[in-house]
């Protein structure tokens, strides 16, 4: 009845070598059976699509007829003739450069503010995190109205205050900063992780520093930052990955425009794979773009991990 | 145990067969014809009611519940899964592309008598016919375009109301006078001129001036060109964008309709379908719909939508009967409630125009557009049309925005011709 045994269960106290061997074999089988759903899931939903997308990247495939093998033709078109590819890479890079540092700085600042003891701190924390749990599409649409240059709330307020207005999402220069501004609306997600890290910093370190005459700025630079540096590294990687895969905001706010100014790589991939009604999908070409994005993400994360590990604090001292 | 397993497997297989695909029944037995539209829930309800009146022994019509948004994604998924319904709403471009891939039923042999090709708007049948003479669907509704104007704003600014025969110069002059008046940021919002399809719309200027259109044929192009007249039209648009009277490329025209209704946009390019919305949500201003301006002779944009049938439809005769019913009877019930577009089947147009009695300028302009001799296509319908859109964003729109000189136009045209030659 009890066919599968846990690894620590042994018949006759596990004394017999043969019994141990048989037990180990069935334990291994049981282990594989237990992880089988995860392996099957990975194979079906990650492994196979990965291999299939690589194959499709080497084909001309519109989803209507069978794929036609074109070798590196799609990659050649990407790097040489496609007028949208390099602007898409530039827009993606610009978004990362703008968004990642700002989200880290604002997230950390907000976390430090929320890490203090004052009346109503819980309400402030809740309000800071609230945008993260609100439906993304609804909030992005709301921001689209706010940023409307003609009848939007932001320009109306600026006009009333006698301040200069902007075309925001309709300006080639302001469109990406406007998208990033909207993305920073969800900085509560970064804040909550930093807050957890800050609360794990031993208070005696601050007390000792205070005794030694350290001021708040010195304590922040010499205690807080080094202690939470592994979390900063984690945040750099998380935020960079998220920024490289940004889709919702430019899709809803600008659909890539004006021109190619907010046409980030994910949006470009989507528009090639799932174009407007009446346009034929370029699934092979979109797959080639996916692989470029995949390699860019791997490279950026590897570089981030490599360089940040130089200053990341880790406690390697033996106990 | 083994028998039970086999039984269960057979039962599952039976269930899967029953659930999968659009099995429309045996060829000589009861048949269900499925229909999918991109219309709104309200319009679909009227269509459903009209389809319920279809009385033919052994044929049941089923209108599939589909969200009107993201119709393109749904169509694409169903095409790839080979699960397209028997009749689905499609554009001229989809019809051309799918027919070339051998995916659609050719209806040309079926058109005869009271439902003959001569009963349809001639330009629609011409444009829906592929290079090898197939008709991979039937045009159902015509899209006509023109200029929506706020008559109150024109009167207040002392500018003559647009009417048939007005010129491009008059339009730009009016735009300049209307700019900044009554909360209007721009005098003219013309997404069709400054958006991805802008180069095609500009053909109207060239053709009207006796020049050549941007391309010789949007369905089967052999070349693109920008002759002297075309370049002159582009230069005038560039000047208008530069002086701030025309909304530049990148302007978000998605809410132009509501801004127009609120009196914040005095003049905009648009289709006749806006009239259906204005019929229900009446704009705050007195408005009208005028034909496009001209240089010397009238010219307009051509566009139409229709209904297609996948090649694997099992009951083509039954499907054609339903298709004929939709074109000849359903619009009579739908268009009085929602006058979105004139039917391509001309005997059915009376109800559409009757429904627009309150908007006489729309009736006049749509009739004039449908009768116009010089028409230009709105965009390429080819497989590589998406790449043209990218080239337009990269090279044509910066010219309009003044970031590149008009002398760069030939370089853009050369790239389009490269695409035409290579076939994408």
Question: Can you give me a brief rundown of this structure?
Answer:
The complex is a heterodimer of chains A (319) and B (424). Chain A is mainly α and 319 residues long. Chain A folds into two domains: 11-57, no CATH class; 78-308, MetI-like fold (Orthogonal Bundle), CATH 1.10.3720.
Comma- or semicolon-separated keywords:
heterodimer; A: 319 residues; mainly alpha; MetI-like fold; 2 domains; 2 strands; 1% strand; disordered N terminus; B: 424 residues; alpha/beta; D-Maltodextrin-Binding Protein, domain 2; 6-stranded mixed beta sheet; 3-stranded antiparallel beta sheet; 18 helices; 9 strands; 43% helix; 12% strand
The fold-level CATH name of the largest domain in chain B is: D-Maltodextrin-Binding Protein, domain 2
Q: Would you identify the CATH H-level superfamily of the largest domain in chain A?
A: MetI-like
- The N- and C-terminal alpha carbons of chain A lie at a distance of 46 Å
Largest sheet of chain A: 2 strands, antiparallel
Number of domains of chain B: 2
As for the number of domains of chain A, it is 2
CATH superfamily of the largest domain in chain B: Periplasmic binding protein-like II
- The number of E-state strands of chain B comes to 9
Radius of gyration of chain A: 26 Å
Structure notes:
Chain A is mostly helical and 319 residues long. Chain A has two domains: 47 residues, no CATH class; 231 residues, Orthogonal Bundle (MetI-like fold). Helix content of chain A is 66%, strand content 1%. In chain A, strands 1-2 form a two-stranded antiparallel ribbon. In chain A, strand 1 and strand 2 form a beta hairpin. The N terminus of chain A is likely disordered. In chain B, helix 2 crosses helix 14 and helix 17 runs antiparallel to helix 18. The interface between A and B is large, with 34 and 41 residues.
Please render the helix and strand layout as text.
The complex is a heterodimer of chains A (319) and B (424).
Chain A: H1 17-57, E1 59-60, E2 68-69, H2 73-81, H3 85-114, H4 121-133, H5 136-146, H6 153-160, H7 175-183, H8 188-199, H9 203-211, H10 216-244, H11 248-253, H12 265-273, H13 283-308
Antiparallel strand pairs in A: 1-2
Chain B: H1 2-19, E1 31-36, H2 41-51, E2 59-63, H3 71-80, E3 87-91, H4 92-100, H5 122-128, E4 138-143, E5 145-150, H6 151-157, H7 168-178, H8 191-194, H9 198-201, H10 203-208, H11 228-242, H12 256-261, E6 267-271, H13 274-280, E7 287-290, E8 300-308, H14 316-334, H15 349-355, H16 360-371, E9 375-377, H17 385-400, H18 409-422
Parallel strand pairs in B: 1-2, 1-3, 8-9
Antiparallel strand pairs in B: 3-8, 4-8, 5-6, 5-7
Helix pairs in contact in B: 2-14, 17-18
């Amino acid at each position: 009845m009890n066919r599968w045994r846990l690894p620590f269960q042994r018949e006759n106290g596990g004394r017999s070598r043969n019994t141990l061997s048989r037990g180990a074999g069935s334990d291994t089988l049981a282990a594989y059976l237990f992880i089988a759903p995860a392996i099957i899931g990975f194979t079906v939903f990650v492994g196979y699509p990965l291999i299939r997308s690589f194959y499709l990247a080497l084909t001309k495939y519109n989803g209507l007829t069978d794929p036609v093998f074109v070798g590196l033709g799609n990659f050649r078109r990407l790097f040489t003739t496609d007028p949208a590819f390099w602007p898409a890479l530039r827009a993606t890079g610009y978004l990362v450069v703008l968004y990642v540092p700002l989200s880290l700085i604002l997230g950390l600042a907000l976390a430090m503010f929320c890490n203090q003891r004052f009346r109503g701190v819980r309400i402030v924390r809740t309000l800071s995190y609230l945008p993260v749990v609100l439906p993304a599409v609804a909030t992005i649409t709301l921001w689209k109205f706010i940023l409307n240059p003609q009848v939007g709330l932001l320009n109306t307020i600026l006009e009333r205050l006698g301040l200069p207005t902007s075309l925001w999402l309709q300006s080639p220069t302001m469109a990406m900063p406007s998208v990033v501004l909207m993305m920073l609306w969800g900085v509560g997600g970064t804040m909550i992780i930093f807050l957890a890290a800050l609360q794990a910093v031993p208070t005696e370190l601050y007390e000792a520093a205070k005794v030694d005459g350290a001021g708040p700025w010195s304590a922040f630079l010499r205690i807080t930052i080094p202690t939470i540096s592994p979390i900063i590294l984690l945040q750099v990687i998380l935020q960079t990955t998220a920024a490289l895969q940004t889709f919702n905001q430019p899709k809803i706010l600008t659909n890539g425009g004006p021109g190619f100014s907010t046409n980030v790589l994910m949006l470009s991939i989507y528009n090639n794979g799932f174009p407007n009604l009446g346009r034929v999908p370029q699934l092979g070409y979109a797959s080639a773009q996916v692989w470029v994005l995949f390699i860019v993400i791997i490279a950026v994360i590897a570089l981030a991990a490599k360089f940040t590990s130089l200053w990341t604090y880790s406690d390697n001292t033996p106990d | 145990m083994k028998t039970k397993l086999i039984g269960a497997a057979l039962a599952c297989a039976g269930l899967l067969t029953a659930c999968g695909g659009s099995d429309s029944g045996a060829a000589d037995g009861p048949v269900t014809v499925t229909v999918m539209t991109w219309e709104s829930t309200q319009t679909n309800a009227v269509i459903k009611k009209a389809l319920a009146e279809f009385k033919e022994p052994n044929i049941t019509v089923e209108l599939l519940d589909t969200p009107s948004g993201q119709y393109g994604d749904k169509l694409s998924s169903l095409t790839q899964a080979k699960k397209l319904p028997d009749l689905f709403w499609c554009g001229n471009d989809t019809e051309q592309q799918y027919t070339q891939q051998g995916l659609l039923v050719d209806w040309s042999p079926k058109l005869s008598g009271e439902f003959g090709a001569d009963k349809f708007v001639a330009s629609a049948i011409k444009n829906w016919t592929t290079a090898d003479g197939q008709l991979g669907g039937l045009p159902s509704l015509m899209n006509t375009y023109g200029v929506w104007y706020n008559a109150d704003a024109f009167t207040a600014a002392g500018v003559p109301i647009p009417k048939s025969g007005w010129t491009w110069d008059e339009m730009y002059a009016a735009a300049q006078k209307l700019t900044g008046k009554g909360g209007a940021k721009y005098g003219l919002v013309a997404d069709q001129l400054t958006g991805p399809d802008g180069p095609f719309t500009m053909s109207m200027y060239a053709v009207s001036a006796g020049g050549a259109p941007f391309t010789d044929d949007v369905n089967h192009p052999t070349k693109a060109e920008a002759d002297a007249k075309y370049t002159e039209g582009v230069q005038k648009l560039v000047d208008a964008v530069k002086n701030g009277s025309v909304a530049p490329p990148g302007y978000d025209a998605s809410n132009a309709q509501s801004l127009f209704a609120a009196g914040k946009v005095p003049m905009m390019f648009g289709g006749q379908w806006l009239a259906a919305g204005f019929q229900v949500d009446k704009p705050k201003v007195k408005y009208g719909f005028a034909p496009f301006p001209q240089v010397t002779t009238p010219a307009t944009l051509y566009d139409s939508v229709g209904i297609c049938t996948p090649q694997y439809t099992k009951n083509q005769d039954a499907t054609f009967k339903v298709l004929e019913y939709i074109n000849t009877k359903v619009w009579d019930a739908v268009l009085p409630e929602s006058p979105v577009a004139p039917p391509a089947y001309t005997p059915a147009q009376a109800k559409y125009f009757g429904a627009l009695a309150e908007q006489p300028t729309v009736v006049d302009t749509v009739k004039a557009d449908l009768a116009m001799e010089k028409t230009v296509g709105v965009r390429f319908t080819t497989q590589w049309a998406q790449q043209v859109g990218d080239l337009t964003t990269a090279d044509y729109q910066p010219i309009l925005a003044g970031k590149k000189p008009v002398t760069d136009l030939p370089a853009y045209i050369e790239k389009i011709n490269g695409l035409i030659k290579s076939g994408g």
